[in-house]
Amino acid sequence: MNKLYIGNVSEEASAEDLETIFEQWKIPHSGPFLVKTGYAFVDCPDEKIAMKAIDILSGKVDLHGKLLEVEHSVPKRQRSCKLQIRNIPPHMQWEVLDGMLAQYGTVENCEQVNTDTDTAVVNVRYGAKDQARQAMEKLNGFLMENFALKVSYIPDEMATADAPPLGGGRRGFVPRGPPRSGSPGMGARPKLQSEVPLRILVPTQFVGAIIGKEGATIRNITKQTHSKIDIHRKENAGAAEKPITVHSTPEGCSNACRTIMEIMQKEALDTKFTEEIPLKILAHNNFVGRLIGKEGRNLKKIEVDTETKITISPLQDLTLYNPERTITVKGSIEACSRAEEEVMKKVRESYENDVAAMNLQSNLIPGLNLNALGLFPGGAPGMGPSMGHNVPPPGAQGGYSFGGQGQPESETVHLFIPALAVGAIIGKQGQHIKQLSRYAGASIKISADEVSVVDANQVAPPEGMDTKQRMVIIAGPPEAQFKAQGRIFGKLKEENFFGPKEEVKLEAHIKVPSFAAGRVIGKGGKTVNELQNLTSAEVVVPRDQTPDENDQVIVKITGHFYASQLAQRKIQEILSQVRRQQQPKPSPRGEGPPLPRPSRK
């Protein structure tokens, strides 16, 4: 991809004009400029220089009153399924990019391109030509965090290999090309903050020393550790501590952290600061439970192995807008450095497991704004409104209820958990369920009475099976449902209510209008069978149900978390279609629905 296409070239422009521009911007080229009417071509020594020319010149440099458009030169026969997307925000999260690309079709491969620019560049291969064309039309110029994406075709060698023979061969037969590379889960993934950034808190009085005169010290740290370091000086004005975020490889983060600790220790000696300066690491609450481990075993092992003392801030310190816990490490700089490596190793493992699990199903779950979930570092923490305590409604005496006011597109799901697990979900003095409600942005109640839940196709439960269940009533929009239910599934696994090799499978109930139940089932059970095949969840609409006072019936969904979520979203999609069809069509003049005709006597 060394050959460049230069578009929007003025008729007055000459090869010498273009050569002067390339020399002015110090962009070498390996051949003469071939100038046509309105466009030109030129070869660069390598792909990196070609990318540099695109980034520096395209849409930025004027020649005879016209802004040049520079992109890879791609023959028509190779304009197929491969695109290059440039000017991606540097710290855009992988799952956000992945979800955005998946809107237009099947992404077979996505690889990051190494460039000298601050923004990121990826090469993407779609499963079909029309998918790539749609992605290019929709994403080119699309604004993300004030960065306008730039999308262009790049040569698709497989398009040539897959083309039908010009002569001979059976009609309609297309010979197979080389095997496709980079299938999902196997190919290289862009490292758009794929490693969790290291976030630490430092005393405000040491921030100046870390930055150095005219920023010299922080630039030196950045250069030596190959990292990007953000010092959030303006956050929490007047606070005793300031957060620092380090974006790099795990090794780069650890090296930067050690250097910062050494600078603080030296500054403390110079200023006769006598208090101990512990290392304070910030980590999203989602990962802290797995860092601590059952009965604190993981954390205790890190303390013993690194000869440090580690404490973690209590849950009560969390707020809707601050989902991070403070991990305080005390010991020598050497010991704290080793502890940082071990702590962040656990946090990154948790993050990668969550991303892997999410990417398995995220593209299949419609209606979810993954960026709003706040599951990953850098995402917007806590998307719901500020939550207060609600008084349990009539009939829920003895049940815990925490949550907020109703939100648009709110859904209600009844999730059934083992009765013995209620204490773990509620937590001491209701702290866990309160925190869960605030984190998810959902209203969460637990029924006071036990219920028996058995397989819809069984007359009696299997012998020895514990069928005592309690119903968790979750109300909130799709993102809130995803977060609340996901945390409940995770908590049951963490607290060993399911075996180490046993998947957590729970039953969930959704109420649907009785007239829509047939749409969920489909003709001859076709829709419900397709739902089960697609989602791997068991979906049952029990026969002979009597609709409740709101003329609603129950749909039962049983499966692991992602299967259950996918089934719930698909059912809600069906209900949305039914609701749209139920809406009266506006009259041509927009005067509202027609009046009923008078009956003839």
Automatic annotation (TrEMBL):
Residues 172-190 have a biased composition (Low complexity). Residues 164-190, 577-601 are annotated as: Disordered. Residues 2-75, 81-156 form the RRM domain. Keywords: Cytoplasm, mRNA transport, Nucleus, Repeat, RNA-binding, Translation regulation, Transport. InterPro entries: KH_dom, KH_dom_type_1, KH_dom_type_1_sf, Nucleotide-bd_a/b_plait_sf, RBD_domain_sf, RRM_dom. It is found in: Cytoplasm; Nucleus. The keyword Membrane does not apply. GO terms for cellular component: cytoplasm; nucleus. Transmembrane segments: none annotated. It holds the Pfam family KH_1. Residues 585-601 have a biased composition (Pro residues). GO terms for biological process: mRNA transport; regulation of translation. The keyword Cytoplasm applies. Its main location: cytoplasm. Gene3D superfamilies: 3.30.310.210, 3.30.70.330, K Homology domain, type 1 (3.30.1370.10). GO terms for molecular function: RNA binding. Belongs to the RRM IMP/VICKZ family. This is RRM domain-containing protein. The gene is IGF2BP3.
